Amino acid sequence: MASESSDRVELLQGTLDLIVLRALTTMGPQHAYGLAARLEQLADHPFSLNQGTLYAALVRLEQSGWIKSTWQKTENNREAKYYAVTKSGTRALEKQTERWQRLAGLVNKLLLEESS
Amino acid sequence: MMWRLRRFAQRFQNLLRPSRAERELAREINSHLLLLEDEFRRRGLSAEDARYAARRAFGGVEQTKERQRDARSFRWLDDAGRDIQYATRMLRRSPGFTIAAVLTLALGIGANSAIFTVVHAVMLRPLPYPEPDRLIGVVQQHKAFGADIVTLPDYLEWRDQAKSLTALAGAWRITVNLTGVDEPERLAGAAITANLFTTLGVAPQLGTTFRDNTNDAQSVVLSDRLWRRHFGAGADVLRRTVSLNGVKRTVIGVMPPGFAWPEGVEVWIPLVPEASMNRGYHQLQVVGRLAPAASLADARAELEALAAASAASYPATNKDWGVQVSSLLDYTVGSTSRSLMILAGAAGCVLLIACANVGGLLTARALARRKEISLRTALGASRSRIVRQLLTESAMLSLLGGIAGLAVAEYAIPALLSLTTLPRSTDIALDTRMLGVTLIASLAAGLLFGLAPAAATSRFAVSTTIRSRGDVSSGWLRPALLVVQLAAAVVLLCGAGLLVRSFYKLQTVETGLNVTRILAARFFLPRASYPVERCIALYQEMITKALTLPGVSEAAAVSVFPFSGVSANVAFTIPSRPDPGSLLTANFAAATPGYFRAMSIPFLIGRGFETGDSASAPFVAVINQSMADRYFPGQDPIGQDIQILGPKPRRIVGIIPNLRQRALHLPPEPEIYVPHSQFPTGGMFLVVRTNVERPERAAASLREAVRSVNRDVPIASIRTGNQLIGDTMSSRRLNLVLLSVFAAVALILSVVGVYGVLSFTVSRETTEIGIRMALGAARRDVLVLMIRKGLAPVVLGVACGLAIAFASTGVLRTLLFGVGPSDPATLVTVVFVLLAASLAAVLGPARRAAKVDPLVALKTE
């Protein structure tokens, strides 16, 4: 299926959740479209997030109680579901970021060792 | 971690109420798309273009929903329900396939659950006594003659001396006439040592058992069945008097339901000194209970030492006799376990073949469904989702097969038990445990045969399949399954072939007897009611009466009838040779004067019995050739004296040819016949030669004639000579019939498999064949090519199967007669049959391939 698209960045399980959580923290409450636009902007490499990819991450985060959602009006008076980080979400972000950095450090080290 | 719990709870909630989350998701995605559209319109696209662009940017809406559902709930549970619905629909839509698969599986699963039910009941379930693994069984083992039950003196020595046992009990199987009740009956009984019941640890449900053998000499203990049958299960049976073999006995106890040791016994009486203290007379079945600290090995070592001591003290009788100590379970099951294990293996082969066959069917179907599957993949189904869907289908098939298999087993078990008599088999039936085992086994089978096709199918990439006709790479799978099937079929066919050949060889064994028109009725006249003169006279009366019956040409009586299962072995001496060095033994029978004539047994030398050979006349005997050869080599036995069962010598007056009497596979043994008037035993067969084609039709009138002579004598059985010979083959019949059935099923399934695989290949390669023909290939070439293609897996399978058969038919060795385990004729026949059947199976599809019209084949593309 998707495996032939090797030019896409494959996201590690849970990575997307962390990115979304981080984006919501910096941007404040945001809807899925806004998040997707922001992420596309951020990545110099095309994540080529099918924008729909976000929804699985959002539901996981919400079910974990790290974000909560409310229906609100946009500036253009469209209705949209806004997600905001909760307190436990903030705490989780800290913890997960730390974990991620440790992991990234380890992976980096291993990769460098191997290529040298 | 709170959040994990929270998430679990939420997912669970969504599982139960999916609709709310679903509406919410649709609304959110819709809003997302509108926002995207706004954006694109702002960039200057038309309304319609903006809508398309938004869709493109968003990606697959359905995939998104699928993924979100995955994350939001326990999809697999939700899916399972849908998969089952879908699978039901699929199976219902192709009833031909479903019925074929379910029937195939039903055969495989049914065979296994039937065999396993029997194996469990006979070999695995514990004996119904407390601490059953502390119980042992003991037999005596002769270096040359093999195992035999135990003599009373040996038993007594072991009981008194063995320290590794807390108890050792013995039972002497007897048959008794029960009279003094409404319907006289002949019963299996046992004369037992008083400690039998306590050794086994079973108390009576009513009354008591024997305290010791002398005080209770006139007592009897009944089985539950007998108590219900004759005494209406009343408590007043205690202290009642019944007559056993004409001896009045008082009922003192009733054993609990199901208790029967030795197996089949319905009455127990105390073993009193009438039992023989002869060290040559093996009569007791012996059971013991291990002392708390002792192991089976301890008991074995101790009893072996005791046996060795006896062999030294009593060389005349105990030389070369050792003991064999085994757990009571092994003792009870005996040699049956071997043939049951063979059958279990064979049933396993059948299941393997059935699974391979259904696997093949599923693969073919999956290939035919690859467009549907690609479409589902394109619509967002993940690979694991597809595999799960396909596995659900095969699991449902196998469950259906399992249920149908239970029905098969329900019928197969009684049929199987009717083929032979197995120990511990009286109460065998499907129970809940077997139900569970069967269903679990079928599910496992479903996974087994479903996994390969599912994995192969789910690999179809969307692009390649939808775009093209798709040359599917999993073409190797069905031939591989076919190889497995054929290998298993070869093994089964070889096993069955060997047994059939053995059976045939046994049937053509020359017995020296012609019993086709013979009817034999068994009687027992207990001495207590029928003193010597009365006994002789009564048998004479019955013979005379039988001779008056229409269709009866000869009548006589004999104590040991060929193939009846009754045998008597006696020790004798030759007075002219005071020290023969070893015990002389021979089979022994008492016969009335007409016996040899009735059986058409000729005399090699000398004469048969005459009415003049009465109790007061000189004692005489007739022997057979084997007896003459073994004990009177180079001499004329006529006129020689032998001494047997009593002080008076007997003169040998005649010699008859060797006859096979005990079992077809055993060589003739030395035999001694004496006149019934000079050895008036109470247990005799009334032997009648009829001049009708079906002697069993005379049975009723014979029964009537006997009753008119004496109402009180129960007839144990009336059998024709052929029935009796058939009975001795019964233990072989179980293996023979089942292995043959299994082999036939294997053959049919394999041939169907061969046919299916090639048909499928042909239909898949029609275009290729068309191209070949367009390029000038002759029809003949195509035919040969296709036959070769069809037979390739067959040849490979047969080769593998032969290798396995060579390695494994040795387990059949003890069941064979007259053929070796790698009998070339059998193996060649099996290979020939399989190849011929396979060739017939591939011929159809190969012909179809050769008839392909290149124009049509290419046009259909």
Overview of this structure, please?
- The complex is a heterodimer of chains A (116) and B (861).
- Chain A is of the alpha+beta class.
- Chain A has one domain (8-115): Orthogonal Bundle (Arc Repressor Mutant, subunit A).
- Chain A has four helices and three strands; from the N terminus they run αβααββα.
- Chain A has helices spanning 15-27, 32-42, 54-63, 87-115, and strands at residues 30-31, 67-73, 79-85.
- In chain A, strand 2 (67-73) and strand 3 form a beta hairpin.
- The relative contact order of chain A is 0.15.
- Residues 1-10 of chain A have low confidence and may be disordered.
- By secondary structure, chain B is of the alpha+beta class.
- Chain B has four domains: 2-73, no CATH class; 145-319, no CATH class; 337-507 and 730-859, no CATH class; 530-711, no CATH class.
- Chains A and B meet through helix 2, helix 3 and strand 3 of A and helix 1, helix 2 and helix 4 of B.
Structural class of chain A: alpha+beta
Give helix % range of chain B: 40-55%
| Interface with most residues | A-B, 29 and 37 residues
Radius of gyration of chain A: 16 Å
Give the CATH H-level superfamily of chain A: Winged helix-like DNA-binding domain superfamily/Winged helix DNA-binding domain
Strand content of chain A: 5-15%
Class by alpha and beta content of chain B? alpha+beta
Please count the beta strands of chain B (DSSP E, at least 2 residues each).
Answer: 23
Q: Tell me the major beta sheet of chain B.
A: 6 strands, mixed, barrel
Cα shape of chain B: elongated
Poorly predicted segments of chain B: 465-473
How many angstroms separate the termini of chain B? 60 Å
DSSP strand content of chain B: 15-25%
Cα-to-Cα separation, first versus last residue of chain A: 34 Å
Biggest pleated-sheet summary of chain A: 3 strands, antiparallel
Mean pLDDT metric of chain B: 84
CATH topology of chain A: Arc Repressor Mutant, subunit A
